Amino acid sequence: MMSNLYALFAANFPADRRTCCIETHDGLQYSWDDIDHASGRMANLLASLALPAGSRIAAQIEKSPEALILYLATLRAGFVFVPLNTAYRAAEIDYFLNDATPALLVCAPSAFGWISKLAFAAGTRQVLTLDDQRQGSLLERAAVQPDFFETVAVTDDDLAALLYTSGTTGRSKGAMLTHRNLATNAQVLQQYWHWQAGDVLLHALPLFHIHGLFVACHGALLNGSKMIFLPRFDSATVIRQLPHATVFMGVPTFYVRLLADPAFDHNACASIRLFVSGSAPLLLDTFDNFIARTGQTILERYGMSETAMMTSNPYDGARIGGTVGLPLPGIALRVVDEHGHPCASGAIGAIEVRGPNVFKGYWQMPEKTAQEFTADGYFITGDVGCFDERGYLSIVGRSKDLIISGGYNIYPKEIESFLDELDGVEESAVIGVPHPDFGEAVVAVIVASKAATLTAAGVIAAMKASIANFKVPKQVHFVDELPRNAMSKVQKNVLRERFG
Length: 500
Ligand code: AMP
Known about the structure:
CATH superfamily of the domain at 5-191: ANL, N-terminal domain
Strand content: 15-25%
CATH class of the domain at 5-191: Alpha Beta
CATH topology of the domain at 5-191: Rossmann fold
Structural class: alpha/beta
CATH architecture of the domain at 5-191: 3-Layer(aba) Sandwich
Radius of gyration: 23 Å
Strand order of the largest sheet: 2-1-10-9-11-12-13-14-15
Helix content: 25-40%
Shape: globular
Largest sheet: 9 strands, mixed
Number of strands: 25
Bound molecules: adenosine monophosphate
């Protein structure tokens, strides 16, 4: 028997529950008591709806304290939370509703018209609304409920959330995460990152993704630490708020944008003890420039929806740029060759992971789930990487992004690193496109810096001088920016469609 994840948080709330748990950008303060009572009212409402056991509760709502409270209420009532990216439009929402078949959907009041039609057609029983200004039927209905709710007991295997993968390489799948997956991962990170008394988290990430909802919020909730909630990332606001915080978590784009702002300097982050980056690769340039500008070293970690966090650079030891650090305590992670044998350090292979963090499987896809696990119980992450001799892991890319040209394996990351070194290249993405002769051919997509006078022929000539011919891009395209999803991952599928 494992206690409900919410019960674990509540047991760690500060002794004085009148202190602040969430402060919003516009000055509202929610105490720990407020969070407990508001989630209690909402959990009572959920319980009153007589939803079947194990019901999914889907939410496509803007970030707000109430959005987090809805997640907590879902945990407390023993249901399964399904956060949906606010950028999703009708076709995507229709897919998720038919796949997750939630009993309840919470959406923005302005979206109620079209979204409720889709929901009812997919069999959803109830649609309630919530906006980021505390308006909507969810809060109206919860307001008349009692504050007190006895958080339900759950078992190790009970689902807490269904998290749809970002689907940069295919259709989104629902990753089933249990209370135990999330609780153990939060506890490991609390220790590993030295969460401490007096910590304040500046929260600028969205709440529909593992990074903002689990890594960030769980860290603060488990540690009884205050969060400053920003509706979205905006460098000026972040720079203004940093002096009130001690911990900041971001995707690499946040750090690139902070560095682009001359107001971001040593002083702006003097109170921060920990900057964390993840969800996408942090460029070495960003890592180095951050040290030069602020004197602080970003801690990069690696995880995914299916596994929560797997590796992290150390808090005390060396944080090495371009790596995602060491496997977290209690988590077994290996890099294997095509025969499933562990690779020597420096050799690139498939990343596999086993531990209490690893999800229960893909929602209603038992065959797909079985395919993604090895006989000895490791989850095949789909990422490719290598360990160095110190045991630090580097990610080379997704296995599906691997290019096989003329029988040779080509890792896009390697070519991207060479391209990024060229004068005038701001960033790059390398993809494989079908080629009649080679099977696939390497294509480079480059964002050039403003003053650059690069040409495709020039880039190809420069690459010929530094890497083997079969890796040299056959075509080079210039774009203003790379297509990225909400978590700043480059959407290589979009590039393949466009340039394939
Ligand atoms: P998601 O499930 O949306 O969190 O996406 C997980 C994927 O993001 C992983 O499988 C990796 O491919 C990528 N990812 C996450 N963190 C990092 C990182 N620090 N460096 C490189 N890739 C990362």
